[in-house]
Amino acid sequence: MQIGDVAEHTGLSLRTIRYYEEASLVTPSTRTTGGFRLYTTADCDRLDLIKRMKPLGFSLDEMRDMLHVLDELADGADATTLDVLRERLERFAESVDERRERLKEQVLAAGELAELLRAHAPTLSGQGGSR
Question: Residue 47's closest CA among 75, 7, 78?
Answer without folding.
Answer: 7
